[in-house]
Design a protein that fits this description.
bacteriolytic enzyme, 273 residues, TIM Barrel
Amino acid sequence: MSRTTTVLAALLAATALTATTASAAPTQDRPTPEAKAAGITEPGDARMGWKERSQQPTARSSATVAAPAGVPGIDVSNWQGSVDWTAQWNAGKRFAYVKATEGTGYTSPSFAQQYNGSYNVGMVRGSYHFALPNTSSGATQANYFVDHGGGWSADGKTLPGVLDVEWNPYGSTCYGLTQSGMRTWINSFLNQYKARTGRYPVIYTNTNWWNECVGHDTSFAAKSPLWIARYSSSAGTMPTGWGAYSFWQYTDSPIDQNVWNGSLDRLRYFAKN
């Protein structure tokens, strides 16, 4: 083969590779139209309950949804930026969950102010990870979460981390996974998180999403407490396996509002144990 022919073949191969790479470029982090309408315009914008607004359009505002019984708290992400934690404390909030990570390529730039600020005013606080099950393994994302703010300590003021697994803002509802594949992914995350921290994480999800994408396996309830997402006057039916919720996100007005299903003493005990 002549040198000219060899060079030409290499150029053609490179062109073919570039074309293949371009055509195979992942759609991940390209928000769906529905996600864009909810304000998710770039990677990292996903937040707890982003779709609940459209799921429960008639029961969103705190004016129509009375605060349920339990200890009040909030969850925040980079959407809120710098939070006035003294004001939240004075409004009666006693716990906070803060978004730390998404997938393995995003850490919230507001995390330090939110995580440390809530702690400094006296709240029991923890962090959460927005799962992207189609981008890397559950264990890989659990490690990323723990390495970027998702750890736990038995100081009585640090809650175990949360696996936020819900509607996909970047593509197909179940992230292209079968129910079996999703169960494997979640177990991988749970087991690695426990190996790193000594605790299983809380699972945040929506019943409709869970039953569609995960199915009716009851084993998860034996490991992880449930944080149910439902913007309504009742928490509704729990996902298969759980008889009750530990946390409930019930509205996003004027900020994501939650309750712990118990007393403040029990919340502190849960944080420590």
